[in-house]
Amino acid sequence: MKNLFIDCGTNLGQGLNEFHKKFNLFNNPNWDIYTFEPNEHINLNNMFLDVKNIIKIKKAVWINNEKLEFICKGKIHESDRKKYNEDRFQGGGSQLKQTQIINNNQKNFTETKKIIVDTIDFKKFLKEKSLEYDKIYVKMDIEGAEFQIIDDLIKTDNLNIIDTLFVEMHARFNFKRSEWLIKKNEINKIEDNFIQTCKNHIANVYKWS
Question: Is 199 a domain residue?
Answer without folding.
Answer: yes
